[in-house]
Amino acid sequence: MSFPKPFPRLALLCLCIATTSAHAQQAPDDAVTPYRPSVSSPAQLPVPGQLELELGGLQTKLDNDRRGSLPYTVKLAFNEAWGVVIGGEAFVSERDGGKPRNQGLGDTIIELKHAFLVSPATAFGVELAAKVPTARKVIGSGKADYSVNGIYSQDLASVHMDSNLNFTRLGAVDADTGRVQTGASVSLSLPLDAHWGATGELSGTRRSNANSTAQVLVATTYSPSKRLAIDIGFAHGLNRASPKWSLFSGFVMPLSRLW
Question: How many CA atoms within 13 Å lie on the side-chain side of 17?
Fold first, then answer.
């Protein structure tokens, strides 16, 4: 497994920042709300006014293609019902067989999120998102995508479930293939003790006249404090159209309390 060249330095810097944050003085309600490492988004928003950062490394293999990236997410809730999420890839390095390596900034996703809190154990959510083609065309599609995602989150005893159903209008498609892609995912997470947890997930996409994708993901998480969550995991494709495997690791931490 090899990450993009800037990854070791960036990872060391992030680890220093995260360690400092973990030992900072905590308020009772400043726990982070991780959206990673699963594909599924939870319905819940972060603590209102708390700017949170998610950053990690991702290595993926599909046939002869290898792709490494540094995915990030910055999220802020205005209140318990509304928030914004901005994410993307801070750096991408990919190689298709024996072709030259392509490197650069990835695409950017801007999202408006609305949560419907039914009870402490049940919540629904809606995400409206637009992908801005900030990546070079050799890395991204070069076109904007638009999506809507419906979320149902539920606590089942000690198990937390997030299920997503989304529809994406793709800006760039091959001839004779559908422009709207449907995605679905179900994630289950379970605390193992006061600091460790486990996550498992099934997810996939479908589009007319195009190959469907499906994958299974497993991950473990470690939270030394409520202000820091670290994850590491593995995803495996369930058909030939999906990446053979993906390895990932990252963390979630607050950047600032704005109000």
Answer: 17
In angstroms, the CA 120 to CA 102 distance is 46
Distance of CA 51 to the CA centre of its chain: 16
Q: Which residues contact 107 (CB under 8 A, 6 or more apart)?
A: 88, 89, 131, 132, 133, 134, 135, 140, 141
Distances (CA, A) of 24 to 17, 31, 161, 195, 227: 11, 12, 30, 17, 9
Across the chain, which has 259 residues, the per-10-residue mean pLDDT values are 46 49 51 96 97 97 88 97 97 84 95 96 98 94 97 96 98 95 98 97 97 98 96 96 95 95
Q: If 0-12 CB within 10 Å is exposed, 13-18 middle and 19+ buried, where does residue 62 land? A: middle
- Token pair, residue 211, equals 């190959």
